[in-house]
Amino acid sequence: MYAGGDSCPGKGARCGEMKMDEYRVLLVDDDEAMLCLLTRWLKKAGYLVRTARNGREALEAIELECPDFLISDWAMPELDGMELCRQVRSLLLPHYVYVLILTVKNDATEMITALDHGADDFLSKPITEAQLLARMRSSRRMLELERRLSAMAHADSLTGLLTQRTFYEALDKEWHRTRRSSAPLSAVMLDLDFFKQINDVYGHPAGDSVLKLVAELLLDNCRASDTVCRYGGEEFAVMLPETSEANAIIWAERVRAKLAALHVPERFKDLSITGSFGVAETSEDLRSCEELVDLADQSLLCAKRMGRDRVVAYSSLVQTAGMAPRGELAETASSVLARDIMQPLQSCLDENDSIAKAVDLVLDGSAAFAPVLKTDGMLAGYVSEKDLLGAIVSLGRWQQPVSSVVRSKVICYDEATRIEVIYEFLCRVSVRGVVITRNGRPVGTIDSGSLLRWYREPVGGPKGCGGATQAGLCEGSRPDRAFEPSPHSLDSACECPAGA
Ligand code: GH3
Ligand code: MG
Ligand code: MG
After folding, report:
1. Which of 36, 285, 401, 443 has the most C-beta neighbours closer than 10 Å?
2. How many C-alpha atoms does 135 have within 13 Å on its Cβ side?
3. Residue 10 DSSP class
4. Each residue's pLDDT tens digit, 31-90
5. What is the CATH number of the domain that holds 357?
6. Total count of domains within the chain
7. Element housing 180 (H / E)
């Protein structure tokens, strides 16, 4: 902790200039008296100071909290000033660290060595308070310029919020931290409703003002640990660390209500603003933070389709109804069940089977994904063509067990589920397909290809059968091999959506 207070701006804040008392200085010296003296001078001048006794301690302190200045002695036990400089320059730090070397060495060769190791400045001991503070003032000019340039690169010029790229940098870091700690992490996507009309009716500058007001609103409702960005146009993304989906829904609902009640300037009479929100929480299944944002984005899309000005959570997508196909096919489809169109399971993968075997199975069958069973016969999850594609790029992985790529969140439907329910689900989400069960045991799969085939054939498409049978089945889609029920049962990872 840097003594003198901790006023480090939170991620929720906009990028901006630093105040004097926000400069953090890490002092490194093995001479206790020197540390005391320099600490006193710097604190008196308003700097936040932390100390370390050698290069190793300094690196640990930098890891915990990145300072703005590193003032280091040259000769120290364990890790000296030059090695410290070199290592600091090789670290990926959140911002530039200005390095000042203080040493009794004072010839030109040594100064060159220090600068070549990554130091910015070099002061020969003994030094005076006035000399040190003057060097600090001049280096602050350099740091301020660097911070301004960095703020310009990281902030959206209209709203001052972080840019999408910077958001993903922060999200990626948080996502990895969350995976280590198992803490919850949620993402919220917000898209303003009918924003184009605001521009059309009130003019582009009015649209800009609304975007700024929304940015303010989001920041005012965020904690310092949250991260808000302008994702693009009239879309915003928010990262909520340590937040479950249930709490993220509460947060989004509160912001949605405040947005709908937002006070706009008099001159924009009758202007109303609403937004649609998509919420998702990370789970063990997700391979990257981009996938988390994708889930929130899919939920947002549903919020739009369901009428806008609402919050939709990804977990609710598997439970809701309302998007079943309409029109002439609807009646026929309503009598067709999952068992009629599923791809029967011809053989199952065991989680100890190799990735090579999984590839063979997926390629031999016509489904884009295959269920995987645990050794005790329970359903472990599934692997998709895409997951396998990701795995095989490294040659050594062909013989790895398929369990290394299995996705455990399996969506299951009973074989007696109407296909329109499954249609609805697959239209809304990015999962490859669902597992069909009989008495709780997997008997087949349905992916979007299965549905496309069925919906094409009843209306006499290129390979159509010229009209549906009573059950809506064509020759081509009828299971050609009966499934032998396996002794396997499903485990608790399986989610069986309601409405089936
Ligand atoms: P929906 O409810 O489906 O989201 O409808 P929409 O009108 O909000 O969405 P659409 O994608 O059709 O239009 C988005 C509009 O946002 C079009 C674009 O001109 C406007 N826009 C994007 N960036 C800015 C900006 O920086 N300032 C202003 N004033 N308008 C912007
Ligand atoms: Mg919009
Ligand atoms: Mg949009």
Report:
1. 443
2. 20
3. P
4. 999 999 999 999 999 999 999 999 999 999 999 999 999 999 999 998 999 999 999 999
5. 3.10.580.10
6. 3
7. helix 164-181
Q: Cα(399)–Cα(354) distance, rounded to whole angstroms?
A: 5
Closest ligand (CA of 201): 1
Taking the CA of 207 as reference, the closest ligand is 1
Cβ–ligand 1 distance for 192 under 6 Å, the answer: yes
Cα–Cα distance for residue pair 111/122, rounded to 1 Å: 6
User: Residues 302, 202: one domain?
Assistant: yes
Which of 6, 64, 2 shows the shortest CA–CA distance to 27?
A: 2
- Which tens digit of pLDDT belongs to each residue from 194-206? 999 999 999 999 9
Q: What does the pLDDT read at residue 409?
A: 64
Cα 275 to Cα 6: distance, rounded to the nearest angstrom: 36
> Of all atoms in ligand 1, which is nearest to the CA of residue 192?
8
pTM above 0.85, yes or no: no
Residue 372: give the domain boundaries: 328-470
Q: Which of 272, 288, 316 is the last residue of a domain?
A: 316
Per DSSP, the three-state class of 3 is strand
How many angstroms from the chain centroid is the CA of residue 291? 7
Q: How far apart are CA 378 and CA 3, in angstroms?
A: 56
Residue-level length of the chain: 500
> Is 50 exceeded by the pLDDT of residue 264?
yes
| 323 Cα to the center of ligand 1, angstroms | 25
What radius of gyration do the chain's Cα atoms show?
Answer: 30
